[in-house]
Design goal:
The protein is mainly α. It has three helices and no strands. The longest helix has 33 residues.
């Protein structure tokens, strides 16, 4: 290896930790409850994942910004922002479904028979 070329072992270690943490989260998500509680269970996690995706795009952009690339230099950042937007949109859909389900449950009034 040339003297002026080195591996950023700290960056590789941090990226590996992030990857392992996301793998743990994937395994943890199998315990997600069904029904309207899924919004309460996942809303904060979805917000944080959207932030993480944007950060990943920024890191990739920064790591490759000085390299000659054939594609659009903003492509990674744009793609990660689109994914983050899709995650937030999914979260908002869950929010709307959860609110509608709670409203429906609140409007159901049991009928009592006289007797």
């Amino acid at each position: 290896m040339r003297a002026d070329v080195y591996k950023d072992e700290a960056a590789a270690r941090l990226a590996r930790q992030a990857s392992e943490t996301l793998a743990e989260m994937l395994a943890h998500s199998q315990a997600q409850p069904a029904g309207p509680d899924r919004f309460d269970w996942s809303s904060d996690a979805l917000d944080e994942l959207a932030r993480a995706v944007v950060t990943i795009g920024e890191i990739v952009d920064r790591c490759t910004s000085r390299l000659p690339v054939d594609d659009d230099p903003e492509a990674i950042v744009d793609a990660t922002r689109e994914l983050a937007t899709a995650i937030v949109r999914r979260r908002n859909t869950l929010l709307a479904e959860n609110a509608a389900a709670r409203l429906h449950r609140a409007q159901v009034i049991p009928i009592r028979r006289a007797g």
